[in-house]
Amino acid sequence: MDTYIENKVLIREFNEDRDVEAIEKLERSCEVGYRKGISISTNMMGDPLCRIRLYQTHVMLIAELVENRELVGVVRGCMKHVGTGKTHMNMGCILGLRVSPKHRRMGIGLKLVESMESWAIKNGAEYIYLAIEANNVASTNLFVLKCNYIKLSSLVILIQPISFPIRHPPQEVRIEKLNPYQAISLYKSRFGGESLCPADIDVILKEKLSLGTWVSFFGEEEWIGLHGKDGNHDDEFIHKTPSSWAMVSVWSTCATYKLQIRRAYPCKCFHTLSHARAKVFPCLKMQTRDLLEKPFGFLFLYGIHGEGQKVGELMKSLWRFTCNLAGNVEDCKAIITELGVSDPLKGHVPQGTMSCIDDIWYLKRVRGSSSDEDDRWTKMPHEEHLFVDPRDF
């Protein structure tokens, strides 16, 4: 895939053998901090593809100056198969668009996006979506005004730095780990309506970065079929649940990349990952004294769901449980989750948790007419019970 912008800039695919150092240099040039002398970077363990490699179909495109082969832009993309309960669709996802500060307002970002859209369409995409920080005016103008994306939903990022001692869940609350087959069945039954749930949820739950799925309920009740054997798809387990219950799955970033808050002086170079940095850094800026110069990872909580009148108590118990779980993971300093702003469970996360409302999902239909009757995804909000794919974070 080679595309030229007025014979001055070449858009091509990332070459893993020769482009790693150039990607690192570009990412560092785009690095920002929240105050003078401090910045945050992400050590991607030498793998610029770490955010998309877990998807079977993925690509990284770079923009290169023809005259001197300087790398001046990059964008990552992947293909997803998404289920909505009644239907399934192929969706393209755009991640990590970056353009060198010295080469902005030259049309490079637009050309990278158009090239990524062409790649997604060739791979069968019906829609393409992406997340943009709410205060990123330049990216919003690019995707909304120039590329015709529309707002899908707003999300809130909730972060809990790990500090000890941590309160344990109440004794009357039972917390049990599901086997992958139970978790898959439960997610498919509960996120099978209008949620954009990954059709390959089984791949996510069986990935080694996924530490497991836990449910909480009150010990005075029984969950029929909970202790069934692997592969159990008993209807009783799915439908005869306790009167109140909650569930969460946990994903560890620590083995993939680590964040580091550091002083802005010459030191060892780190690859950067703008999405994680932009999310985590604003919420941890009050903790920089403890985190400065020390690499740290975090656990990401996903697939959060609950039912019943007492779901709030059970969600708080799961939150405490995951805090204790994080304490046993090397270099893990926080637990993080991302929920739709209208998700009722958002109010049941412990009040001491820091939050940053800075993510907006945008969507564009690229196959078929947007006026089609079945095009409900560009015509209605989806801010409740969003299933945030941990591979994107």
From TrEMBL:
Organism: Protea cynaroides
Domain called N-acetyltransferase: residue spans: 9-210
Transmembrane annotation, as ranges: none
Any one Pfam family match given in the protein's UniProt record, by short name: Acetyltransf_1
Protein name: N-acetyltransferase domain-containing protein
GO function term, MF aspect, one: acyltransferase activity, transferring groups other than amino-acyl groups
InterPro entries reported in the protein's UniProt record: Acyl_CoA_acyltransferase, GNAT_dom, Plant_NAT
Domain of life: Eukaryota
Gene3D superfamilies in the cross-refs: 3.40.630.30
